Structure formats: structure tokens, C-alpha cells
Model the fold of this input.
Amino acid sequence: MSRNQKLILVVSLAVIVLVFIINGVIDNRNRRQFDTDETMSEEEAANLLAKKNEAIEVNVAKGKNERERIEYYAQKFFKSIATKDYEDAYNVLNGAYKERYFPTLQSFIDYCEVYFPGTLGVKYTNIERNGTTYVIWVTISNSTGYSKSTIEKQVVVKENGLNDYEISFSK
Amino acid sequence: MNFTDLRLKIQRFFRRTRYIFLVAIIGLAILVTLNTIVKYRPQQVVPETNLDTRASVMDPNVKTPTQVSSSIEELISIYMGYCNKNDFSSAFDMLSEKCQQYMFHNDINEYLQYMYTIMPTPKEYTIQNYSDLTVNGKTYYVYQLKYFDNLIETGLTNTTYAYTTEKITFVREGEGSLQMNVGNFVDFEDIKRLTEGEYLKIDVLTSLVQYSTITYEVKFTNRTDNYIVISDSNEDEEITITLNEETRHPVERPDIILEPHESKTVSIQFTKFFDDSDPVTAISFPNIRVMTKYSGNEAGEEVIREEINNAEAKLGMSVGL
Done:
């Protein structure tokens, strides 16, 4: 084998090895993008977990059709209220709506404890689209102890992107 | 073939193809790397919806061409911008001359009155293509404009879900620019079709086409010394239009009674959807009465019947459109 041929063989092998290394690094980095390690601070780990949950939520939303997706957003909102994760529910309220009707988180909590006190059952009766804003008519049943009551509400959902939405409802 | 021969053959083959081999390896490497990068590239996640503003409601297979729909969306955006800033004068200026003249009689106050009914306060809006069709060399893009309040900011608190709609039409004649019409106005045409006989001349002068109606302006000329009754609601069929598949009566039947040698111009409106693909072929007046005496509807049923029975002539006339 001449010197020239040897050089070509070495270069070719080097290129192949390099490609495997680059692909391995990219693959690994993407597979482990949500993995935590001991060197991370608590905040970094929490951020990473939030990112991972967001990616999962986006995937769930992606798998649904338009109506299912909008109802799913509303369902998540009422689930947060039912499980008393009021801050999560408050965070998805539209800014101007919040300013007008619930200027503080506490005002929202106070409202929810009066109007949605127990186990919530949400039934969607109708939906209308206006561009990227949807109006959903819902019947919410509240069960507390032996009593059960139902109220009708209209929920407005504005979808800015997948799992990126704002909510308001008839107070 | 022994091992040495095989080795020599491989060596010779490698020597001959070494550059091709090198290029192939490097090319393959680039492809594999690009594939990996593309695979993990963050993708823009856009929600899937059934919303397609370009697809016609009347026929989803028909879509406004992208370039035209972009121009239409831009025009509507500018128009709504003016309306939401209460700059109705600029909004009015955007309308076609025909729309200004025949829909609003060149009177901005008439336009303001109309706008007050459709959007009394600033509104958000959506658009949807309703139909695209070409008639007599003109292409009409009919869009529905839906006006509604900012729903997300109120959550419909202390209010009910409500919206208003109107059809707006964009018309292009040949290579001309898009002409914008609002208020369900589609077009206005000088028709100038006539029919005449011994007793009566009928001129169909114009047609005002709105999305769901068509209004004809018709001039009747009495050529006799008698009364001519074209319509007074005393016969079942007095005014009709003929379409390919049916006959229609006016929305409101006007009284058309001509004194001797009188000419009268009357507007007659019919329900007719612009994009129903069923053109009007004629307007007919099947129960015209030429009467020496006409006492009017106040005279009572008996007198009316007697006068009809004693009519000088009874005829039907039709104008092809």
C-alpha cells in the first residue's frame, strides 16, 4: 500500500469515527436533556423538571383534535382548582381579566372556595370558535358531603400555541 | 485465485477509486450528521385547527389564491383599524365607488348609521371566505366578517355571548385592483332590458345585488287611456322572477297601479343568494289588468271582482334578464 493510499484510508476512518462521535454526543445530549444530576442546584433541577413537564404537556395537546384540546385546557384549569393548586389556575388567567376581576391571588382563592368548594365535575355542552379564541359552555357540579349543586359557566380560552393558552370565565 | 491475487486486485481497485471513495465517505458523513441535527432541531409547534379562512364555505374545494387572500386580509385589517379608531371617514373612503353610491347614497351618515348597527363599539373580528365566483369577467370573493367583543378580557362576565356578521365582497375586473364592498353589497348594474306591447311598456333599468337579495328598478309606462293594474294583491301571482329551478315572489309585493298614460318607476326586491349558482332568467308580471274603472282595494271584494271581470284586457308580460 502506497503512502497516499494509507493516508486516504486513515482520513476515511477518522471521518467515520468523528461522525459516530458527533452523532453520539447529539443523541446523548437530547436524550438526557431533562436528566438531573447531583451538581445541579435545586432551582436548576426544578426548572428542568418544569421543562420536562411542559414538553410532555405539549405532546399530550398535540395528540388531541381542536375541540378535545380546548376542553383539555379548561379541564386542567378546573382540575387545578379542584386540587387547590390555585396558583397554577391563577397563572393561566388572562392578564386584563385578572386585573379586572381577580387583582390578587387571594381574591381568586376566596372566590373559588365559595363557588367551587368540593369535588368538581365538569361537563362541556357547547363550543364556539372566534379566530383563536374559543367559548365553551360548561356545567360544573360541586359535591360537598351530601350536597350537590350545579352551575352553568362560560369559559373563554385563547390558544396562543400548543399548551400555551389563556383562560377567563363568567364570574 | 490465491490470496496474493485477491490482495493485488483489491489494491488496484482501491488505487483506481480512492478519490471517489474519499468523497463518498465524506458525503455520507455530512448526510448522517445533517440528519441527526435535523432530527433534534426544535420544531415549531403549531396547533392544528379546522380554521382555513381561504377555503370557501360554499365549496371547501375552492380556495382564494394565496396572493389574493393576503391582499384581502391586509385590506380588512386596515379597514378594521380605521373602524376601531372611529375613523369612519377613512373606512368609508376604502369602499368601492359603487358601494358608496348605491348602498349608502354617497352619504357618510348613512354609512355611520349602518356601522352603528353592526359594530357600535370597537370590536375584534374574524374572517371566512364564503364563496369565490366569476361572473361576466368579474371575479367576486365573498367573505364573512364576524364582529365580537374582546371575550378573553371579560370571560363573558355580566354579558351574553353575541356577535354580528356581514358579507363583504372584493371584486376584481380583469387585471384591475380589488374593490371592496361592505354591508352585504355585491354589485350594481344597469340592465336596460325591456318589453313592450299595445298597452304597456316595461323597462328593467337596474339591479342592485346584495348577498341575499336582488332588487330590480322597473319602469312601467301606460300607453292607454285606461287604468293598468300590475299588482294590487288581488291575484295570486302578480310579480315573479324565474330561476333555472324555481319561481320566486318578491319579499314585499308593491302596489303598481298606473293611471292613463302614467309612467312609474318601482323597486322590487327578491330573496336571491348571490352564490347559489341559480341565475335569474326573467322577471314576469303574469296578471296585468287593463281596466276602464278602478276603485282600489278599499272598494270591497265584490266591486273588485266585478271590475276585474269587466277588464278591457288581461295579459301577462315577461322581461328576459
